[in-house]
Amino acid sequence: MSPLRLTFLALAIWGTIHPMYWFITWFVQNEWSLMAMVDAWHANASTTGLVWDLTIAAVALTVFVLVETWQRRRFIGLLAIPATFCIGVSCGLPLYLFLRSRPD
Length: 104
Hints:
It contains 5 helices and no strands. It is mainly alpha-helical. 17% of the residues are buried. The mean pLDDT is 95.
């Protein structure tokens, strides 16, 4: 495996573990309330801006993955879409780049 692919894989793993640690910590402290988390995301203008920034990035990544998958016919890249929306862009983007850089 090339150093670039290893870097993408390491970033995907880090992008899974690091955010999930903070999400789980928050959920444990707030009785697993999803609505309380959504409220916290919109606590002020800064967090609302960050939510929209990540939402737009996630949608752009999804469109890119769908178009690339359609053109290349490498359907394994579709795994990046649920990773993006269930974990975050920090996981989905490097995961897609890892899967996309696989030699034929």
